[in-house]
Amino acid sequence: MIEKQTGRQIKRLRTDNGLEFSSGEFNKFCKDEGIVRHHTVRHTPQQNGVAERMNRNLLERARCMLSNAGLGKDFWAEATSMACYLVNLSPSTTIEYKTPKEVWSGTPADYSDLKVFGCTAYMHVNEGKLEPRTKKCIFLGYATGVKGYGLWYFDPKSQRFFISRDVTFDESAFLNVKKESTISLGTREEPESSKKVVSETIDESEPSTFKEAIQSDNSERWKEGILGVEDARYKACLVAKGYSQVPGVDFNDVFSPVVKHSSIRVLLAFVAMHDLELEQLDVKTTFLHGELEEQISIHQPEGFVVEGKEGHVCLVTKYLYCLKQSPRQWYKRFDSFMKKIGYFRSKYDNCVYFRKLDDGSFVYLLLYVDDMLIEAKEMEQINQLKTQLRGEFEMKDLGATKRILGIEIERDRKGLSPQNEKEKGYMLYVPYTSAVGCLMYAMICTRPDISHAVSVVSRFMSNPGREHWQEIKWILRYLIAGKLHYNMHVVALSTTKAKYMAVTKAVKEAIWLQGLYRESSTNDEVIVVFCDSQSVIHLTKDQMHHERTKHIDVRFHFIKDTIAQGTVMVKKIGTEDNLADMLTKSLPVKKFEHCLDLVGVFDG
């Protein structure tokens, strides 16, 4: 076949010592055709590694398809044939991401007719005027040499294999032949261990609707949860159909701010620097605390429909979850209360509140939807604020801060060590784009040391390859073993311009941080921004316009006015002390460890 299809002759054939390859007839055929034979040594499959690896891959795919379709081992041949068919349609790195079919035939692979192996198929038949027009079958692959589908017609009285062209598929449904089949090869029943696993999985799944909850085995417990009886395992919540709200009619503004990650890091720095107390609170039924401003009606909740008044609606007296404006109204209510008890809202972060006490110390509160962080010099001051909050809202006291926004806080009174341990384990089981997103979150929150690596792997999210996954795994292994990075949206024509724009953004961030800090401090020290480019430093101080830099956007030149006013100072930093290098380039191990030591995250 190969000689006829490609015009090339087989000169050498390498096989194992299987009887099908060692028979006298086959050896005579090879000798007559001039084909040189190579055999592997007994019990040494690695000498024919390519074929052995493909055999393993085919069997892995076959087992997966049989398991997914609920079919027994009787269909192993069909599953293996289908696996081979799919391999020939799958891109491979060894042939530059082309498919074997494309390399063999020169035509690209066609995926329009792919069906799920083992799915339910309805074969169209015409056996009489009053007879059914279809037979319910199982799809077992594609027939060779015929443009049709291979189907298994399952019936206790008649079990036959058909090839048909006129077939309708239901790829979401599968016939469980393991339980129902009476094939003569033996009755196949699902193992008790599998039944137990499936049973436990079903029992542990939570219902998503009222009907599912009432029809479940724990319906009485769910009824209690719906009526308001507190149980950690059986919680129910009435939600509105916010997707049906009309902008301008049912709601107007919906934006609700949350505390910035930079503000959280500043707060943690205060705590570590001054050995302050740090406590955490959680608001129960957060969005129910908002003050209603519109007239909102909802249908009577399922299970609470008043007999004889089925067509009536309910008038909402409190904001519900899933209403568009609920988060904003909660924030407005909380903001009003904090101002009422004497706290000021930061001008630099709308979710940072502070109050100056008589002894000159401050109490801080940070809000992220329903999570709160409270920082103060003494626990008495924190407890006083907790009492005020509990008097207004239903609160849950979480005690000393252990975890906030996925960041685990470890404290030994000598400092704070933010961690992301749970996220590191979770990242191992998510798709590529989700893994990159998780790594970015870890980078922004607690791990600046992976900034450059994450910036590289994030460039391939639309079409990741095997080598990109290897890089993701490398980063995860690095995280398990042991400053917000902006990408420019402007093409720089020189390194000077690129660094000039980077310094401008650094100055903007520094001014914001200084403003946040000065609200609770009288420190008027000048901000020092370090840069490793002498030409950039001269450019920030020079008011002249030069031929090579006149094209730089005016918005980046505000740094010159800032420096002239004495707000910021830009200084030269040597390469050996420039910790920002680990954020922008690949470094040798020694230099990388030195940078980690400079930012205080290297633990040896």
UniProtKB/TrEMBL annotation:
GO biological process: DNA integration
Keyword Electron transport attached: no
Pfam families attached to this UniProt entry: RVT_2 (PF07727), SH3_retrovirus (PF25597)
Keyword set, alphabetical order: Hydrolase, Metal-binding
Integrase catalytic domain boundaries: 1-108
The keyword Membrane is assigned to this record: no
GO terms of molecular function: hydrolase activity; metal ion binding; nucleic acid binding
Database matches in InterPro entries: DNA/RNA_pol_sf, Integrase_cat-core, Retrotran_Ty1/copia-like, RNaseH-like_sf, RNaseH_sf, RVT_2, SH3_retrovirus
PANTHER family, per the entry: TRANSPOSASE, PUTATIVE-RELATED (PTHR42648), TRANSPOSON-ENCODED PROTEIN WITH RIBONUCLEASE H-LIKE AND RETROVIRUS ZINC FINGER-LIKE DOMAINS (PTHR42648:SF28)
Protein's recorded name: Integrase catalytic domain-containing protein
UniProt organism field: Aristolochia fimbriata
